[in-house]
Design a protein that fits this description.
Blueprint (H helix, E strand, L loop, with lengths): L1 H44 L27 H9 L3 E6 L2 E6 L2 H8 L7 H4 L3 H4 L8 H11 L5 H4 L2 H19 L3 E4 H18 L13 H18 L6 H4 L3 H33 L11 H7 L10 H32 L1 H15 L14 H13 L5 E5 L4 E2 L5 E2 L4 E5 H6 L41 H18 E5 L7 E2 L5 E2 L5 E6 L2
Helix pairs in contact: 8-9, 8-18, 9-14, 10-12, 12-14, 14-16, 14-18, 15-16, 15-18
């Protein structure tokens, strides 16, 4: 027995030693690869002047702590000094940070793929959907999905946006006059509610009790986990991340979301088959996103597979609820800070809606001042601060400088929107910038909250319609004011959010 115990101990020790050596070799290989990549990036970027970097951290430490500018005061300063762009280093990884419309136009005119350094944190959740796919798959699916965002399809959604906004405002009324609320928390649930109605025709009741629905809780948690991982550099390694409790939870929640999406898709396929043989008198008055995905066919008569449909639904849920929530939250914040603009929006909303609690598609074109206020907020507090691309072929900028294949490029939408060489007094909230008479002569890529070019946001009209609907209904019925006890501080990640404790506003019913 003692002999066997000794043998087992030796065997275990040998296994541990061998595993340790394998681990050390893997680390050494990784370090050599990173050093080689760092040298290659440095040679490529040396033609673009920029700020000095820390030998280990690069420029990561420059983006902290968060402040009212979104934690990007340093980036704003650099954009003012280096007009068109400058190298930025995240540890050993270097890329060109584009800060001027002219450079941005060169990159966005291409169909170059998104850089997985940023988007890989959410890819296990959203799969190979339109946001991250590239090549022939992207071309095909973009063409197939375009009808889902046609004007005629989007119009009925304003009723669904109205329903979700009214549920949120009913909660505000119950809190009493002058209640201080974390706007992001309320608005995120509202936009998620809207997305479920428009994408899947699901009445989730998530604004009342999100814990009742495991899918809602999972989507909410996945978004937060992805953003947390983005800010913790050691967790960028898949090997490390999926060994942590956070990584395990992320993986488990992905399974919850995927199983839910697959179940809904399966049930809808069966329902559509029955509709073909039954009386259609009871059909819905609008097509949701899933209907269109299931019915669309390419020129060869082939539709999307169940996996492709699941990826597009999950992508739509991620992109549609969190980015719109950011845009709406900061719009309400800017209107609270500027009561004169808020009052002008209120008068416009009351004139158009005449007290109605439902916005129609026709109403949207009669809200020009609300529209310019939203646009100025999207400029000042850009919902998606940066777009990352990885070049598959060389690109030459108008000044003759070029980047070779394999280069990483970040189009800093935030910096472009705050560049003093492009915008006068860029840190001032001034909706008049977007009045028609003031837009003449402006660079086509000076304002790109939804990106631009062939890979622009396919759902930009959907998002703007939801923003206009929600703002009109809210300012018609509520007065918004800043909670002086909570200073709003933006924090930069996949979308612009508010740092802890949140973005607090006081809401007072007017009726």
């Amino acid at each position: 027995m003692m002999f066997m115990a000794t043998e087992i101990t030796v065997f275990s020790g040998g296994t541990v030693t061998a595993s340790l050596w394998v681990f050390l070799v893997l680390i050494a290989v990784k370090l050599v690869t990173l050093v080689r990549k760092q040298r290659e990036d440095a040679l490529v970027l040396e033609k673009f002047p920029g700020p000095p970097r820390h030998w280990l951290l690069g420029h990561v430490h420059k983006f902290e702590p968060p402040d009212e500018t979104g934690g990007l005061q340093w980036a704003d300063d650099m954009a003012a000094e280096y007009v068109y762009g400058y190298p930025v280093w995240f540890g050993p990884v270097g890329y060109l940070n584009v800060t001027h419309p002219e450079y941005a136009k060169t990159i966005l005119a291409t169909t170059e793929p998104k850089d997985e350094f940023v988007y890989r944190f959410i890819k296990p959740w959203i799969g190979d959907g339109l946001l991250v796919s590239h090549g022939q798959k992207w071309f095909r699916n973009r063409r197939l999905l375009t009808p889902a965002f046609h004007f005629g399809v989007l119009q009925p959604y304003t009723h669904l946006f109205s329903d979700s906004t009214n549920i949120m405002m009913a909660k505000w009324r119950q809190l009493g006059a002058g209640a201080s609320i974390d706007v992001f928390e309320h608005v995120s649930l509202m936009t998620l509610d809207s997305m479920l109605k428009c994408a899947l025709t699901v009445e989730s009741n998530c604004q009342v009790d999100r814990k009742q629905n495991s899918y809602i809780a999972a989507v909410f948690s996945l978004t937060k986990l992805a953003l947390q991982r983005f800010h913790l550099f050691p967790l960028h390694s898949d090997l490390i991340y999926y060994l942590t409790p956070m990584g395990y939870r992320f993986w488990k929640l992905c399974k919850v979301v995927h199983q839910h999406s697959e179940s809904v898709i399966r049930d809808r396929r069966e329902a559509l088959k029955k509709e073909q043989v039954q009386d259609s008198g009871q059909r819905r008055k609008y097509l949701d996103f899933l209907d269109i995905l299931l019915k669309t066919k390419d020129e060869d008569g082939n539709g999307l597979s169940d996996v492709e449909i699941r990826d597009e639904v999950d992508t739509f849920m991620f992109e549609g609820h969190d980015t719109t929530a950011s845009g709406l939250s900061w719009t309400l914040y800017n209107l609270a800070r500027h009561p004169e603009h808020q009052e002008r929006c209120r008068q416009e909303a009351r004139s158009v809606l005449q007290g109605r609690s439902v916005v129609t598609g026709t109403d949207l074109s009669h809200l020009p001042y609300i529209t310019v206020c939203i646009k100025e907020s999207l400029r000042l507090h850009t919902a998606v601060p940066s777009i990352a691309r990885k070049l598959t072929k060389s690109v030459t900028f108008p000044d003759g400088k070029s980047l070779p294949p394999g280069s990483l490029v970040g189009i800093s939408v935030w910096n472009i929107h705050h560049n003093p060489h492009v915008w006068r007094d860029p840190k001032v909230y001034d909706p008049s910038r977007f009045l028609p008479e003031n837009c003449k002569g402006r660079h086509s890529h000076a304002f790109i909250p939804f990106s631009a070019g062939p890979r622009n946001c396919i759902g930009q009209h959907f998002a703007m319609n939801e923003l206009k609907t929600a703002v009109a209904l809210i300012v018609q019925s509520f007065r918004l004011s800043v909670d002086e006890n909570h200073v709003a501080k933006g924090v930069m990640s996949l979308v612009l959010k508010a740092a802890d404790p949140g973005l607090f506003l006081k809401v007072t019913p007017l009726d």
